[in-house]
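Quick one, probably user error.
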């Protein structure tokens, strides 16, 4: 941390980089072929390490590509702003064309899934902004998958009765007997 004098006031400055230029942001993704050929550039790379939870990403969808599977969020709101090109938004049970100047709001907790695709002949460029939540859970209605971030897992849940598979007697009694015999 360094001190900077400014008009008689002392301002503390950290090494936090508050500004990222798009030209300096590395391009990620894009290593798959269509339909999963999207690329993105993280515009807020230092936000999380500084304690922030908001992020912004520039996305590029080449023709014939989809940004991600159809999904909904429990904790993370998302907003998309179309910069250039045309695309299609799938939002719940609706499908609509999107283009420059459109701003798309996807509130968390509604279980309304969303997906952006580019069925056209030119790149679709859009900004995505949203908060990060370590306890995020996403649902994927087309495939029945669930993502649980805190577990680092994407999979499918199988419904079961609450006591299904619990041992008789409960394991704690055997552990107690082992513990008591070592005293």
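Nope, works fine. Designed sequence:
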């Amino acid at each position: 941390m360094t001190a900077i004098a400014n008009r008689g006031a002392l301002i503390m400055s950290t090494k936090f980089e508050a500004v990222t230029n798009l030209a300096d942001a590395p391009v990620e993704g894009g290593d798959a072929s269509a339909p999963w050929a999207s690329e993105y550039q993280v515009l807020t790379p230092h936000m999380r390490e500084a304690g922030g939870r908001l992020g912004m990403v520039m996305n590029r969808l080449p023709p014939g590509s989809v940004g991600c599977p159809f999904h909904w969020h429990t904790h993370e709101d998302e907003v998309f702003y179309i910069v250039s090109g045309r695309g299609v938004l799938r939002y719940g049970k609706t499908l609509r064309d999107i283009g420059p100047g459109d701003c798309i709001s996807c509130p968390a907790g509604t279980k309304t899934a969303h997906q952006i695709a580019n069925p056209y002949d030119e790149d679709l460029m859009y900004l995505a902004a949203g908060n990060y939540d370590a306890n995020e859970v996403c649902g994927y209605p087309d495939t029945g998958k669930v993502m649980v971030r805190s577990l680092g897992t994407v999979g499918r849940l199988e419904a079961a009765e609450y006591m299904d598979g619990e041992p008789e007697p409960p394991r704690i009694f055997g552990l107690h007997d082992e513990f008591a015999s070592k005293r």
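The chain has a mean pLDDT of 91.
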